[in-house]
From TrEMBL:
Species annotation: Gramella jeungdoensis
Name of this protein: Bifunctional aminotransferase class I/II-fold pyridoxal phosphate-dependent enzyme/GNAT family N-acetyltransferase
Cofactor(s) listed: pyridoxal 5'-phosphate
Superkingdom of origin: Bacteria
Keywords: Aminotransferase, Transferase
Signal peptide: none
Stretches assigned to the Aminotransferase class I/classII large domain: 55-394
Record bears the keyword Transferase: yes
Gene3D superfamilies: 3.40.630.30, Aspartate Aminotransferase, domain 1 (3.90.1150.10), Type I PLP-dependent aspartate aminotransferase-like (Major domain) (3.40.640.10)
Listed GO MF terms: transaminase activity
Pfam families registered for this protein in UniProt: Acetyltransf_6, Aminotran_1_2
Domain annotation BioF2-like acetyltransferase: ranges: 630-769
UniProt key word Transferase: yes
Length: 800
């Protein structure tokens, strides 16, 4: 069977960023003829700047500016030569000063991103392994990807999970020489810290463990001589630790610095560290500015600067405690994160603050999970206490208004971030003009009513759902035990606006991953069948595809109905304790994509859906004439000549022995098609088909061997839709006799004989189905995950 196509992560990110740009909160341009640090002009509004990462304000220090200007006059705008050959005259002075700050050997890199690319592939050897905190900065994760081509295992653990780290160390300890754990010192979104002392203790317990810290957001404002957060937690830097600081951001200049106490490793990195060898060195102006900053760091002045910043941080914390603003992490870093949950709330809140003259940053996917969108505020020495007070007052005023305007609430935000928020008598936003009918069985919905709304799609008619409930509602195996949830939203006149059904079920996390990823994971599942699986709340179920909802788009309350539905499934997800919610099988519509994104969902590309909606031909000749010229050649060469090789039977009640054999044929196909990796359905499902009047079986028996080599399991929707739901084949004969193509053709013939209106051919093998006249429809799903860990874990496996 042909491979299905898979979602491109970059396409998803592109769509999210594009939406944020359209909302006017990203890809902005500062205006004006100068910058002071305290204020910044955006869209004609002069705003107080609460978005900088120059926490001490040194980028505006006259000493750094004068040093940079003087260096340009003396040495030019750059020294265009690799530092391996020769450094320009200022480099040695800067290196000596940085060694005094860190009391260890250092290397200067062009920036931290290139620095990680230089250091990680050199420091990590072929018999090592790497474990990444899943919130470690992208630049570290990107550099670690380079290790995979050398066969070095690279894996993720959940953020700051020492228990998960220790478990991973135990599993790797007898397989590798060294184990590198890579983390940030201060995390750039929430401003929280790595558990440094606990990690050092763990490395003492497991000598194989080496630590690699990116501390660029902890630099200068913390630590002895501004050496950073990591150094503030340690008396000395152990030899098993590599530390990255920055000469940009708070340091006020440009570049990055690696601190390497292991002198042998230091020499290796210096002699051949990728970009260290082949990239141009820092410009004289940047080095001169860094020297001026280093002089400040090596003086008592740095502690005065740190204390001044801490006064502002403490003041901000005190003011925030007097409000109901949902601060996600309480700490003493200059990074603050006010959770908004929904992107729509984040966009609106940022816009209100910008209009009031406060520039802040938006935290959004993929930097944070999409439902953990929020406002990232950074405090610097540029901010006066009065500025901070005014910002808090503006946030306190606009936040509840923004929640109300975007149908959000503090309780929803608390659930999204898994924190307790005292919301008092908070008003729950839901339209009084809409009513919700909820049930857990199709039996409680009138058959004709349901069929009129959704029943004309695949196996989604009333009888089909009754069949699915019987097959999966109370199954003994947890992977086949699904819960069913039906929603019908109506207006005050009982006119339906939205209807759908959801299922709660155990999914394989790699269901839509490339077959190569699933193949590796399936090997691990031989010892643990539930490895990398999660409880998921999904529109439709794993057995169905197609249009899973009814939406009256012309109704004036259509968008409100969608928002109400999302509120309902948020509560359902919490009750079922699911890790992900999936709304699936939509034809891409910009307005719907934007709405789902604003409500906390990200788009992913689904496999193509295939349908045939013209069955009006009378004979084979007419059928061929409707195919493209290329498909006609395929039909004459690979389908027609083999039809006489088979005895074709249409069965409604095959014997138990036959069902057992059909089931083996189905399992053959399932094992051979990991492109859509689900659990293998139980044999009881196929037994239930026999007793259900809507199911029939198209059997292909090879005449020369009298052996059944192909089976199509077909559902007859009572609204005139024929649904070949599953297929089974004997692969010993499939290629020679083109069994799958013949099954497709016989399915089309059968649907025509039954005078069906349409064939829903489902996912996958779209290339083969197109050759027999199918129309290919691109489909999209929208997902909401509790965190990004599962997505990033699979994306990392995808790139191996």
């Amino acid at each position: 069977m042909a491979k299905i196509k898979h979602n491109n992560f970059l396409d998803t990110v592109d769509e999210v960023i594009t939406n944020a740009t359209k909302a006017g909160v990203l890809h902005l341009h500062a205006e004006g003829t100068e910058l002071t640090g305290r204020k910044i002009t955006v869209n004609g509004i002069k705003s107080y700047h609460f978005g900088t990462t120059g926490y001490l304000g040194l980028e505006q220090d006259d000493r750094l500016k004068k040093a940079a200007i003087e260096a340009i006059k003396r040495y030019g705008t750059q020294f265009p030569l690799s530092k391996t050959y020769i450094s320009h005259p200022l480099y040695a002075r800067l290196e000596k000063k940085l060694e005094k700050i860190y009391k260890n050997p250092i290397l200067i890199t062009k920036n931290s991103t290139l620095g990680h690319i230089a250091v990680i592939p050199t420091a990590v050897e072929d018999n090592d392994a790497v474990i990444l905190d899943h919130q470690v900065h992208w630049s570290v994760q990107n550099a670690a990807q380079l290790l995979k081509i050398r066969g070095i295992p690279v894996s993720l653990i959940r953020h700051n999970s020492l228990e998960m780290l220790e478990d991973r160390i135990k599993k790797l300890s007898d397989k590798v020489r060294r184990i590198w754990y890579m983390a940030d010192g201060v995390y750039s979104m929430y401003g929280d810290y790595a558990p440094v002392r606990e990690l050092i203790s763990l490395s003492q317990k497991y000598p194989q463990l080496h630590l690699y810290f990116d501390d660029v957001h902890g630099m200068s404002w913390k630590g002895p001589n501004g050496s950073g957060y990591i150094m503030s937690m340690l008396d000395d830097l152990p030899e098993n630790v590599l530390l990255f600081g920055t000469l940009s951001k708070t340091f006020g200049a440009s570049g990055a610095v690696l601190v390497c106490p292991d002198k042998k490793l230091y020499r290796k990195i210096k002699n051949f560290g990728g970009p260290l060898t082949f990239s141009a060195q820092l410009e004289p102006s940047a080095v001169a500015a860094a020297i001026a900053s280093a002089n400040i760091h090596l003086s008592q002045e740095i502690y005065h600067l740190q204390n001044t910043l801490h006064e502002r941080i403490n003041y901000f914390n005190i003011l925030l405690q007097k409000t109901n603003l949902p601060l996600i992490e309480n700490n003493d870093s200059p990074v603050f994160y006010i959770g908004t949950g929904l992107p729509a709330t984040g966009y609106a809140f940022v816009k209100k603050l910008m209009n009031e003259g406060f520039f802040v940053n938006l935290g959004l996917f993929p930097a944070v999970p999409v439902k953990n969108t929020g406002v990232r505020i950074t405090v610097s020495r540029h901010n006066e206490l009065e500025d901070i007070k005014n910002l808090v007052e503006a946030m306190d005023y606009h936040f509840p208004k923004t929640l109300e305007e975007t149908d959000n609430s503090l309780s929803r935000i608390g659930k999204a971030f898994n924190i307790d928020i005292n919301n008092g008598s908070e008003k729950v936003n839901s339209s009084a003009e809409l009513s919700v009918t909820y049930t857990e069985t199709i039996q409680e919905i009138e058959e004709s009513y349901w069929s009129r709304l959704i029943g004309h799609h695949t196996i989604l008619d009333w009888k089909g759902l009754q069949f699915l409930e019987k097959s999966f509602g109370n199954h003994q195996s947890k992977e086949h035990r699904w819960s069913f949830h039906y929603f019908i939203i109506t207006d005050q006149k009982s006119i339906p606006v939205l209807a759908t059904f959801m299922t709660g079920a155990l999914w394989k996390n790699d269901m839509l991953s490339p077959a190569s990823v699933s193949k590796d994971i399936e090997e691990k599942r031989k010892s643990n069948p539930y490895k990398l699986t999660s409880n998921v709340l999904s529109m439709g179920c794993l057995f169905t595809e197609g249009t899973h909802w009814y939406l009256n788009e012309e109704h004036p309350l259509a968008k409100q109905a969608i928002k109400r539905f999302i509120l309902e499934i948020e509560s359902l997800s919490e009750r079922l304790d699911t890790k992900m919610t999936v709304l699936r099988d939509f034809i891409k519509e910009p307005w719907l994509s934007e709405l789902f994104h604003q409500e906390g969902f990200i788009p992913i590309e689904m496999p193509d859906s295939c349908i045939i909606d013209d069955l009006s031909w009378e004979n084979k000749k007419e059928f061929q004439e409707r195919l493209s010229s290329r498909s006609r050649k395929h039909f004459r060469k690979e389908v027609l000549p083999f039809e006489d090789k088979f005895e074709i039977s249409i069965l409604s009640t095959p014997t138990p022995d036959k069902i057992q054999y059909y089931y083996q044929l189905y399992k053959n196909v399932k094992a051979n098609n990991l492109g859509l990796n689900t659990f293998t359905y139980p044999e009881s499902l196929f037994e239930n088909m026999v007793s259900h009047t809507a199911w029939e079986f198209i059997e292909l028996k090879l005449k020369q061997t009298n052996q059944v080599v192909g089976i199509m399991f077909c559902y007859k929707n009572d609204r005139g839709v024929y649904v070949p739901s599953l297929v089974g084949m004997d692969y010993d004969y499939s290629r020679e006799f083109h069994v799958y193509r013949q099954l497709l053709y016989q399915t089309i013939k059968r649907a025509r004989d039954l005078k069906m209106k349409r064939i829903d051919l489902g996912f996958s093998a779209s290339f083969e189905k197109r050759k027999l006249g199918a129309s290919i429809i691109s489909k999209q799903a929208y997902i909401q995950s509790n965190d990004n860990y599962l997505l990033e874990q699979l994306d990392m496996m995808r790139n191996e």
